[in-house]
Every structure is written in structure tokens, then in C-alpha cells.
Amino acid sequence: EVQVVESGGGLVQPGGSLRLSCTASGFIFGAYGMSWVRQVPGKGLEWVSSISGSGGTTFYADSVKGRFSISRANPTNTLYLVMNSLRAEDTALYYCAKGGRQQPSDSWGQGTLVTVSS
Amino acid sequence: EIVLTQSPGTLSLSPGERATLSCRASQNIVGSYLAWYQQKRGQAPRLLIFVASYRATGVPDRFTGSGSGTDFTLTISRLEPEDFAVYYCQQYGSSPFTFGPGTKVDI
User: Fold this and answer.
1) Closest by alpha carbon to A46, among A103, A116, A97?
2) Distance (Å, rounded) from C-alpha A87 to C-alpha B39?
3) Share of chain A above pLDDT 90, in %
4) Measured between CA atoms, how close is A106 to chain B, in angstroms?
5) Spatial distance between the Cα atoms of A80 and A103, rounded to a whole number of angstroms
6) Counting Cβ atoms within 10 Å, is residue A100 exposed (0-12), middle (13-18) or buried (19+)?
7) A1-48 residue pLDDT tens
8) What's the gap in Å between the CA of B59 and the closest CA on chain A?
9) Residue B89: per-residue pLDDT
10) Is A74 helix (H, G, I), strand (E, B) or coil?
11) What are phi and psi of A71, to 5 degrees?
């Protein structure tokens, strides 16, 4: 069974940093792109970032470019999102999803909540 | 950036009725890399349709995706009680891999 489980969310002050992790199982991790998608409670989905299966190609939304960094560790089936210079508008539930460029997001975690507030 | 527009914003229907949801792109989606997702309250999104018209594993055949280029449609032939949810389209062919704003299907 395919599973992805996010962790690392929490409360952080504006300007602070946070690292999200996503642990995957049930599929050949390095064969698939992976993505982060966020959602403000009660609002729509916003794509944040994706990475190729090898980790060699990354993609970012303009709203996070230069502040967020996506990476992956294929030997440990783990996806990361390092978030710097956090703003109040980054407050959201962050989902990890299997899939990326030209691959639909066919498995999603339950999300980890990031709250940016003083 | 490809902007996706979904209509209507809300669709009020009854069980057994047919639902037709539209997703329009600001540019041609090459390869028809267009997906539809269903999200119920308090749950993660679930993939329904990929490459515009292919059902994901386990998706009932009352869900049909169609379209190409800039105009795409998700049709639910006969609404079941569990189908009342929010539906999003997403293009995943060219970055940024944008989502539409969603269509809420409610009773």
C-alpha cells in the first residue's frame, strides 16, 4: 500500500525557518516525482514545489521561490521542504504528494500544519 | 503561467442528478496533463482523473473526464451521496503546476 506521511509542522515566528519531512512507502520512491501542495483551511489548493525522481530537477511557485527549498533522500524514501523567511501568508496545511511534472498526484498524506505568527 | 478557471463555483444538485464541471485553461495544455481531484471536508485530496480522461485506480465509472487543449470537463453521471465534495482541476505539464479554484458540489 502506498503511503506518504508528513511531519515537521508547527508554530514559527515571522522570518523564521522550518523543515518539513515526508516519509514514503509502498512504491519505488526514486522512480517518481514528489510534490508539496498547501491549503489554507477553508480555501483552495496551492501547488508549492515539485522535484524529479532523481532530485536533479526542482520546480517552485513564484510565491515561495528563493525562500523554500525542496530536496529528497532516495535511500531513506524521504522528501523535504526547507522553508526560510516565513511569512504569515505561508500559514497553511502542507500536503506531501506522490507525483510531479507529467505525473499526477495519486497519493497524498494527511498534511502537516504550519502556522506563522508572533 | 497557465491559469485555470473552474465553473461554476458551486453546483447545487440532488442525488441521482448529473453534474458537469468545467475547467478552462489560459493556454493550451500540451499532452493533456490535466487532472481532477475530489476533496471532502477534513480529508486530503483524492485523484480521480489524469491525462484529462483516464480514471485513477478504484474510481467509479460514473466519473468521466473529457476535453483537450484549453477546455476540460468532469462529468458525474448520477450523483451518489458520497460525491458531494469540492473538485479541483490541476495542470501538471508545465511549471508552475497550477490548480483551479475548485467547484463545490452540494445538495
Assistant:
1) A97
2) 26
3) 100
4) 5
5) 19
6) buried
7) 999 999 999 999 999 999 999 999 999 999 999 999 999 999 999 999
8) 12
9) 98
10) helix
11) -155, 170
